[in-house]
Amino acid sequence: MTGAIVTGGGTGIGRAVALQLAREGWHVVVTGRRAAPLEDTAALAPERIRAVAADASDRQAMDAVVQTALESGPLGALITSAGGHGYSSVAETTDEEWSSSLQANLTTAFVACRAALPALADGGGSIVIVSSLAGIRAAPETTGYTVGKHALLGLMRQIARDGGRDGVRANAVCPGWVRTPMADEEMGVLIEQGRAATLDEAYALVTRDVPLGRAAQPEEVAELACFLAGPASSYLTGATIVIDGGAHVVDVPTLAFG
Fold first, then answer.
1. pTM for the whole thing?
2. Which of 19, 20, 24, 18 has its CA nearest to residue 1?
3. DSSP character for 196?
């Protein structure tokens, strides 16, 4: 059976991707720094998902994760979903914050891709990089996060350019608001500010001008990521697909007319 690796597979989008891959018949290795969430994910489909705690920015650790995945058969896909950190303006971002943000958002994907590429090239596999709407837009005071997510698209394009003749495809998905634990924490800021009383109210506030008028569920993003990982997208590479309920098409200067 074909195997897949999902970084950041313990929660949120990564967990949803792992579960969807398992439902589709893949053997999945989920990895991340915290063992407990990974084990929780694996427990939901123990016959298909294996948890391996590892820092995706560590080369030796990711080499070991790849070898673990190969124990179940050829490697067919890598989905990089690790990330976070980097919420301050350029002027207020410290050297430490800058370094940790790029490590979490960019280096984890780079190291994971580098480790997996030889195995993926053996069978013509697929890489799916989970970026963000922040990869094509900028939110207030999110320097490290925004820069890292932008850079992920460059990484994806380079892999698509270099890996194509080996049959390796690379694509990126850019979600907008998705109801995940990380996004819930951001909604908590609005609640603390008194701008919303509940998580539902906070999500309604941040999606007020989104054409579909709501945040995504992780499973909706997972469906797209799994399509890109699998054979149904066999001629698709180098693509950046935005999944944000239409937020990116909104012309901000015309909001007053809406």
1. 0.96
2. 24
3. -
Which value, to the nearest 10 degrees, does the dihedral of the CA atoms of residues 222, 223, 228, 229 take?
60
Q: Would you name the residues annotated as active-site residues?
A: 145
Q: What is the DSSP letter of 189?
A: H
Give 189-225 pLDDT, tens digit per residue. 999 999 999 999 999 999 999 999 999 999 999 999 9
Q: What interhelical angle do 12-23 and 181-192 show, nearest 10? A: 150
Query: What are 211's two structure tokens?
Result: 């054409």
Residues 129, 174: contact at Cβ < 8 Å? no
Question: Residue 7, SS3?
Answer: strand
Token pair 């490590």 in the structure block, residue: 103
Name the pairing type of β-strands 49-53 and 27-32.
parallel
Find, among 73, 76, 66, the residue nearest to 31 by Cα.
66
pLDDT tens digits for range 15-40: 999 999 999 999 999 999 999 999 99
* 8 A C-beta contact, residue 49 and residue 42: yes
Q: Which residues pair with 200 in a beta bridge?
A: none
Closest Cα partner for 252 from 190, 209, 198? 209
Q: How many CB atoms lie within 10 A of CB 24?
A: 15
In Å, what is the CA distance from 20 to each residue of 49, 113, 179, 221? 11, 21, 17, 10
For residues 215 and 179, is the Cβ–Cβ distance under 8 A? Answer: yes
Q: How far apart are the C-alpha atoms of 37 and 33, rounded to whole Å?
A: 9
| Residue 1 vs residues 27, 64, 143, 237: alpha-carbon distances, Å | 7, 20, 41, 23
pLDDT in tens, 76-109: 999 999 988 889 999 999 999 999 999 999 999 9
8 A C-beta contact, residue 219 and residue 23: no
